[in-house]
C-alpha cells in the first residue's frame, strides 16, 4: 500500500479515536495519527491518561472501560470534540496471568469487561458517527493468544481476544453494508506495562522474539506497528475488512 499525500499526511482531516492511549502502542498510535494529519482523541484511565506523553493537539478523555457508561461517554465526547469519527481503534486491554484452576470470578469479569464488553459498546456507540465518516474503519487490537492460547497462563485473556476476533468478523459483515470496514490486528510482542505482569522468563526478550520470528528479526518498535495499523485503517487499506492481520511474523 502506498502512503501518498503531501508530506506524508495521509490522515489529513480524519478524526481518530484511540483507547488505551497511555500504553506503549496506544501512545504510538496517537503520535502517528497526529503526525499524519489526523485529529485525535486519546482515552485512558486517570492518572495515566493525564500524565501520558502525547502530542499537545491530542484531546484527552479520561474513562474507565470497566464502566459501561464511560464506554458510551467517551465515544460521544470524542465525536463532539473532533466533529465526528472516521477511525476507531479499540486498543485498550487488561491481562490476568494465573493458572486456569486459580482463576476467580473477579478475574474473569475484569478481562471480559475491558477486553470484550468495552469494544462491543464502543463499536455500537461509534456506528452512527462512522456512517457519516470518510472511509470509516474500526480496528480491534487482539493477540495470538486468542488463536493459540498464549505461551503463558493467560487463558482468560486469550478467551476474550478469541471472542473479539470472531466478533470482528461478524460486525464486519453487518457494518460493511454501511461502508464501514472492521478488522482485527494482532501486534508482535513489545515491551509494555501490561506484559510486565508475565513471569520474567516469559516477558519480552529481544533474542527470544527474534528466534520465534520467521523473518529472523526482533519485534518492531511500536511506531512501526502504529504506522501499519493506521495506514491499513485509512483509505489506503480499502480492501481490508473482516480479517485478523497477524504482525507477529511467527510461523505456527
Outline the secondary-structure elements.
Elements: E1 15-18, H1 24-35, E2 39-44, H2 48-51, E3 59-62, H3 68-82, E4 87-90, H4 105-130, E5 137-141, H5 145-148, H6 155-176, E6 181-186, H7 206-212, H8 222-233, E7 244-246
Parallel strand pairs: 1-2, 1-4, 2-3, 4-5, 5-6, 6-7
Helix pairs in contact: 1-8, 3-4, 4-6
Quickly describe the structure.
The protein is of the alpha/beta class.
Describe this structure in words.
- This protein has 252 residues and is of the alpha/beta class.
- The protein has a single domain, classed as 3-Layer(aba) Sandwich (Rossmann fold).
- It is built from 8 helices and 7 strands; from the N terminus they run E-H-E-H-E-H-E-H-E-H-H-E-H-H-E.
- It has a 7-stranded parallel sheet, with helices on both faces.
- Helix 1 crosses helix 8 and helix 4 packs parallel to helix 6.
Q: How does the overall form come out from the CA principal axes?
A: globular
Order of helices and strands: EHEHEHEHEHHEHHE
Percentage of residues in DSSP E strands? 5-15%
Main sheet: which strands, in order across? 3-2-1-4-5-6-7
Domains counted in the coordinates: how many? Answer: 1
From the 3D coordinates, which CATH architecture would you assign? 3-Layer(aba) Sandwich
Helix content: 40-55%
Under CATH at level 1, the class stands as Alpha Beta
By DSSP, the count of extended strands is 7
What integer is the average pLDDT? 89
CATH superfamily: NAD(P)-binding Rossmann-like Domain
Amino acid at each position: 500500500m502506498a502512503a501518498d499525500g503531501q508530506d506524508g499526511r495521509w490522515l489529513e482531516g480524519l478524526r481518530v479515536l484511540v483507547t488505551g492511549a497511555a500504553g506503549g502502542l496506544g501512545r504510538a498510535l496517537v503520535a502517528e495519527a497526529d503526525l499524519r494529519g489526523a485529529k485525535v482523541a486519546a482515552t485512558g484511565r486517570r492518572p495515566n491518561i493525564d500524565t501520558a506523553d502525547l502530542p499537545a493537539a491530542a484531546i484527552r478523555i479520561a474513562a474507565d472501560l470497566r464502566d459501561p457508561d464511560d464506554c458510551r461517554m467517551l465515544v460521544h465526547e470524542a465525536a463532539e470534540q473532533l466533529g465526528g469519527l472516521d477511525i476507531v481503534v479499540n486498543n485498550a486491554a487488561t491481562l490476568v496471568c494465573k493458572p486456569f484452576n486459580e482463576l476467580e470470578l473477579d478475574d474473569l469479569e475484569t478481562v471480559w469487561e475491558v477486553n470484550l464488553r468495552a469494544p462491543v459498546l464502543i463499536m455500537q456507540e461509534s456506528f452512527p458517527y462512522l456512517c457519516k465518516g470518510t472511509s470509516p474503519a474500526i480496528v480491534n487490537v487482539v493477540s495470538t493468544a486468542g488463536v493459540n492460547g498464549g505461551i503463558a497462563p493467560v487463558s482468560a485473556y486469550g478467551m476474550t481476544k478469541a471472542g473479539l476476533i470472531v466478533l470482528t468478523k461478524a460486525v464486519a459483515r453487518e457494518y460493511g453494508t454501511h461502508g464501514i470496514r472492521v478488522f482485527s490486528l494482532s501486534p508482535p510482542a513489545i515491551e509494555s506495562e501490561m506484559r510486565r505482569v508475565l513471569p520474567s522468563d516469559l516477558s519480552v526478550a529481544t533474542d527470544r522474539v527474534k528466534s520465534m520470528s520467521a523473518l529472523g528479526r526482533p519485534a518492531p518498535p511500536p511506531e512501526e506497528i502504529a504506522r501499519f495499523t493506521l495506514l491499513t485503517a485509512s483509505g489506503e487499506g480499502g480492501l481490508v475488512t473482516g480479517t485478523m492481520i497477524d504482525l507477529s511474523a511467527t510461523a505456527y
